[in-house]
Structure to design on (110 residues):
């Protein structure tokens, strides 16, 4: 299994490919550069990306990818959506602790 370097920022063009590309579990962090809670969450996501190798972590800038944000009804950020086998299974809205995010993820790994 490839090593997660970090949570890569992706565009809407890359999104479908990553979600459907055989990654069992993908966590997508929808964020904006002006969003202070998003900036505070970023190191937490990076840390989890290094710790939990079974999960693909990616980030989507809602300002640069408005169509994608609209498709998933992102109205509050930060918003993390967990995809399993290409389908949305859960979402976490607002600032979360590493423990809460990890607990949620581990619930889908079993």
């Amino acid at each position: 299994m490839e090593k997660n370097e970090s949570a890569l920022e992706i565009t809407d063009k890359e999104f479908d490919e990553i979600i459907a590309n055989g990654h069992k579990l993908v966590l997508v962090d929808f964020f904006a550069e002006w969003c202070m809670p998003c900036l505070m969450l970023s190191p937490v996501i990076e840390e989890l990306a290094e710790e939990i190798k079974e999960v693909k972590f990616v980030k989507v800038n809602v300002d640069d990818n408005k169509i994608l944000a609209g498709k998933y009804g992102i109205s509050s950020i930060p918003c993390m959506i967990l995809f399993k086998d290409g389908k949305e299974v859960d979402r976490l809205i607002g600032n979360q602790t590493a423990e809460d995010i990890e607990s949620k993820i581990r619930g889908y790994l079993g």
In short: Residues 15 and 68 are 9 Å apart (CA to CA). The longest strand covers residues 25-31. Strands lie at 8-10, 25-31, 55-61, 79-84, 87-93.
